Amino acid sequence: MKLVDRGFVFIRNFLERPVRWMYVRLPGEWRRRSVSNIKERMRNQYSESEEQLMRRAEQFLLQEGMLAFWGVIFLLLLTLGILWIQYAGRETIVFDRNLFGGGTKEVAVTLRRGRQKRRYVLSLREKSLSPEEEKSLKKRFFRELEHSLAGNNASLSQVEESLRFEETLPGWPFSITYEPENADYILLDGSLGDISEWLKERGSLFTAVVVTAKYQDYVWKKSMKICIKPHQKAKRHSPFASIIRELRQQEEKTRSQGQYQVVQQEGEVRVEKEKKVSLGSLLLLGGGALLLLVSHQVLELREKEKASRKETMQDFPVIVHLLTLYMGAGLSLASSIHRIGADYRLRAGKKKSYAFEELLRMDQQLRLGAGQQDICSQWGKRFQEPAYQKLSMTLQQVLSKGSREGRLLLEQMEQEAFRQRIAQAQREGEEASTKILFPMIVLLGMVMVLVMFPAMLRFQGF
């Protein structure tokens, strides 16, 4: 496990090294502004010192830099790879022909002559068969056709029912025609003629069907012997005209080859293979994906900031209530904060709350003997919400005026915080009702379908 962790650390350091090198060489003012902006967004999420927030903000910027730097490197390598594939072997362009039965394939090339440009589509016919290949395929074709022709009969040497004259054979490109040797024995649709008397006299009848299979320039013909037995119950001149003529001639000469090669340079005309991938669209798509990847963490940071501030405002009435309760019971400010912090630590399984973490930090400073007035002032400044700043000033007044007047101030603030909590709950309820509006519309549509469907079926019955 330690070896795996070391490997991850090594990879991370390797990826971070060039980004850190560039980060150090940025202008100092840019670095300070960027770090300060990120730190302010993180301030209400982490109850840490300024140095810790500074390190966290720098680490966030380094992560963003790593995504941007290595994303650009990957995009450049991908672009170079596609360019190499498209322009490798500039003297020859290679197109693969379709195999036998694959049909004609259209390939597009771009013809250039100076500033003139023309797109030409060449019909590339399928690879022709050699005599040996044609002989082997012909033998296999007629063997499969024999089984198809027999239909429900055991074989062509024991025909008792109608033959099956199929116009095509699955897996083969041929169109097939049948010509019976004697139309009295076998009809044109493959059924048997009236030969019952003949079969009674002779016992069996020998005839043949001439099968012709055609596909493009290929014509295969064979006479298939059949034995019938009684049924046993059971325009203007173009500068590209010459190169087009040469492309067609070259295509005709190379039909026996699996590939068709085109020389790119023919005099003043250059032949180019049509690009399937546009570099402009690739760069645009890659840049957009990279931008989304880099901005994802920034957007996530903003969402965390909003969620943290919302949670802080939700904790505000609780903190005011606990301070009023403990100080009303006669505890001092330091003891009340210590008691709140102790209760917060005992909440098992509760995620950290920024407001309570700041109270723990305030309790630690009070136990070290720092001035209470200064601590309350600093505690309020660490929040962006005016409610906490007002609470900070109220606590300072409590320390200066005494417990009785301070208790009254806290009770007034508690009532105000309670009203704010009710208003916040109303806003959240309105937002929730808006969010569930679309699912309610979808459910209404489903209910309407369930209600109307039986009625529609009944009407169709009439």
- H/E series: HHHEEEHEHEEHEEEHHHHHHH
Q: Within the largest sheet, what's the order of strands?
A: 3-2-9-8
Task: Report low-confidence residues grouped into runs of 5 or more.
Answer: none
- State the end-to-end distance: 74 Å
Strand content: 5-15%
For the secondary structure, the number of strands is: 9
Tell me roughly what share of residues is in helical segments.
55-70%
Q: By helix and strand content, what is the structural category?
A: alpha+beta
Outline the biggest β-sheet.
Answer: 4 strands, antiparallel
The number of helical elements comes to 13
Q: What is the global morphology?
A: elongated
Mean pLDDT: 77
> Rg from C-alpha positions?
44 Å
Q: Outline of this structure?
A:
This protein has helices at residues 2-24, 28-42, 50-87, 131-150, 196-202, 241-253, 279-328, 333-345, 354-367, 372-381, 386-401, 403-435, 437-461; strands at residues 92-96, 105-113, 116-124, 175-180, 205-215, 218-228, 259-263, 265-266, 269-273. With 462 residues, it is of the alpha+beta class.
Describe this structure in words.
The structure is a single chain. The protein is of the alpha+beta class and 462 residues long. It contains 13 helices and nine strands. The chain has helices at residues 2-24, 28-42, 50-87, 131-150, 196-202, 241-253, 279-328, 333-345, 354-367, 372-381, 386-401, 403-435, 437-461, and strands spanning 92-96, 105-113, 116-124, 175-180, 205-215, 218-228, 259-263, 265-266, 269-273. The strands form three sheets. The chain has a four-stranded antiparallel β-sheet with strand order 3-2-9-8, covered by helices on one side. A hairpin with a 2-residue loop joins strand 8 (265-266) and strand 9. The protein is elongated, with a radius of gyration of 44 Å. The model has no long low-confidence stretch (mean pLDDT 77).
